[in-house]
Structure formats: structure tokens, C-alpha cells
Automatic annotation (TrEMBL):
Pfam families the UniProt entry points to: GATase (PF00117)
UniProt xrefs under InterPro entries: ChyE-like, Class_I_gatase-like, GATASE
Protein name: Glutamine amidotransferase
UniProt KW Nuclease keyword: no
Taxonomic placement: Bacteria, Bacillati, Actinomycetota, Actinomycetes, Micrococcales
PANTHER family (alphabetical): GLUTAMINE AMIDOTRANSFERASE YLR126C-RELATED
Swiss-Prot/TrEMBL keywords: Glutamine amidotransferase
Organism: Microbacterium alkaliflavum
């Protein structure tokens, strides 16, 4: 089988390693079948798409809507590398699934409006599929409404005409979209479980996702409701695109 790739941007080892472990668990892939590239440390490889089955993008601390002077040299490099990759991925309609930071990379490439209009605190929210989402082959096993983990400062407020809206939540209208037939992006985290998001809450406590006195409230928020459905799409993605 041709391998899949996970593109990651987390500089902290523990959440980075847990993210990779969660993608392995929920995709069902072995380490030899899921190549991890930590873009905060290394340049984007010049991938030959013909040698891959698909690409995943995990979450991360970067925000596409930050003013250019606020972006570190690492973030600027990562964004430039993603633009180059996505120019080939979108043109080829190559299998791609970006989660959280991944929705920002694809959205920015397509010219979507990304701003601070629809942030969501770290929590569990109800996500509802659109009619297009219900008909999408990646989501065929999902209920119309399901709970999902979120936590983001920015979001897409206006999708470009080339994108198909697949899912929304009450506090964030763009939770998932598709471009072409095979390029997907989610605002929510399909790869997370309670233990994984708990690690991230502690790792990013000083990053402005919640106030310094809200740690316990945030930990309680991710236990508000069970989250079991989103990870299904990772296994479905692999089953659909492995080659």
C-alpha cells in the first residue's frame, strides 16, 4: 500500500506525539503506513503525489488571520510550503483531510474569509451535517448531528464558491467543507479523544484559548458530552483512498 502522510505543526513533543498516536489509532494505519512530518522543525518535502495514498493535516498553534508582522518566520515558511503543496493537491483533486489548522490552510489557499467572528472555546459542540454532507461518501456512516471537540480563535466566515459546505455548528457556520471530490477540511478535531484534548489543554494553557483561572472549567467542558462519531471519518478516509 502507498503510505499516507500526516503534516504536523506542534512544537511541543507530548501533544505532537499524542496527535500522531491518535491518527494511527483512528485510521487503523501502522507507523510504516503513516509518515509524519513535523513542519515546525523541517521544510515540507517535495512529495510525489503518485507515491502517496492521501494527506492528513493536524491542528496547531498558527492562525492564518494573524497580521503578517505577528507571524513568526516559522509560520511564514509553513504557510508558504502549504500554498505550494495545495496548488498541486487542489489541481489534482488529491485525497486530503485537514483538521483545525488544516481548514485554515485550505481556506486561505482558496481565498476564504478567515477572521475572529466565530471562535469557539475548547469544548464539545453539536455539529450538524448539511444535505451535501449527508450525501458525501466520507460521511455516509455519520448521524445528521454529532458531538465534536473544538477549540479555535479564528474560523472561516465566508466560503468561496468553489467549496461545498458539509457541516456547521450553532456557534461556527463552517465546520467542514469539501473542494472538488477529494479535498476535505474540518474545523472540529476528528482525531481527538478526552485524554488527547486534556493533554492539549494543559500544553496550551498560556496560548489565549482560555483565561488563567478557567483551567478547571475548560477541563469540565470537554467532558460535557461523549464524543464518539468524528473519528469514524478517519477510518473511512483511509478505506476510501488507500491504494
Amino acid at each position: 500500500m502507498k503510505p499516507f502522510v500526516l503534516l504536523a505543526t506542534r512544537a511541543e513533543d507530548r501533544p505532537a506525539d499524542e496527535e500522531y498516536a491518535l491518527f494511527l489509532r483512528y485510521t487503523g494505519l501502522a507507523e510504516s503506513e503513516l509518515i509524519r512530518v513535523r513542519l515546525e522543525a523541517d521544510r515540507m518535502p517535495d512529495f510525489d503525489l503518485d507515491t502517496l495514498s492521501g494527506i492528513f493535516v493536524g491542528g496547531g498553534p498558527f492562525n492564518a488571520s494573524d497580521p503578517p508582522p505577528m507571524k513568526s518566520l516559522v509560520q511564514q515558511r509553513v504557510e508558504s510550503d502549504f500554498d505550494a503543496l495545495l496548488s498541486r493537491v487542489v489541481a489534482a483533486d488529491f485525497p486530503f483531510l485537514g483538521a483545525c489548522y488544516g481548514i485554515g490552510t485550505v481556506g486561505a489557499f482558496l481565498g476564504a474569509t478567515i477572521d475572529r467572528t466565530y471562535p469557539e472555546p475548547i469544548s464539545v459542540v453539536p455539529v450538524t451535517l448539511t444535505e451535501a454532507g449527508l450525501a458525501d461518501p466520507l460521511l455516509f456512516s455519520m448521524p445528521r448531528e454529532f458531538e465534536a471537540f473544538v477549540g479555535h480563535k479564528e474560523a472561516i466566515s465566508v466560503l468561496p464558491p468553489s467549496a461545498v459546505l458539509l457541516a456547521s455548528s450553532p456557534t461556527c457556520p463552517v465546520q467542514m467543507f469539501r473542494v472538488g471530490q477529494n479535498v476535505y477540511a474540518t474545523q472540529f478535531h476528528p482525531e481527538l479523544d478526552v485524554e488527547g484534548i486534556t493533554t492539549r489543554i494543559h500544553a496550551y494553557a498560556g496560548y489565549g484559548y482560555f483565561a488563567s483561572d478557567e483551567l478547571d472549567l475548560t477541563l469540565a467542558a470537554v467532558r460535557r458530552a461523549p464524543v464518539s462519531h468524528p473519528s469514524r471519518m478517519l477510518r473511512t478516509f483511509v478505506e476510501r483512498y488507500r491504494r
